[in-house]
Amino acid sequence: MIKINLLPTENAKAERTPLPRFPPDRVDGRRVLHSALLQHLHPHPDSRTKDDIATEQATLRGLEPFVQEHDKLLARQTELQNKVREIEGLISRDVEDWRTVNALWDVIHQNPASGSTTSASSTAAPLPAL
Known about the structure:
Number of strands: 0
Radius of gyration: 45 Å
């Protein structure tokens, strides 16, 4: 059930609250006392913060050789991954490519062109059919 007070405010019943009402000067005094107590219990953290920062910076300087070693290992890892990828590419090639290379090799060694293997000869035998 909803209660609505339609009486004018001067005739309305005074509200009762469970909280006590304090005059403003007592409230301000309590705020000052509360802030002073908090300041005493939790002093300004500048000195501790500066010491913590200095300690952490010293720790970081001590860990720098490990960071450099980690960077070198990562570079080595990428290098090895590239080599593995290249080897896997060679392994997965079709046999036909290797037959062509072997046939070309045989032609070069059977018909040397004027003593040089770099110049082409018009009398070279054609590549065998695959």
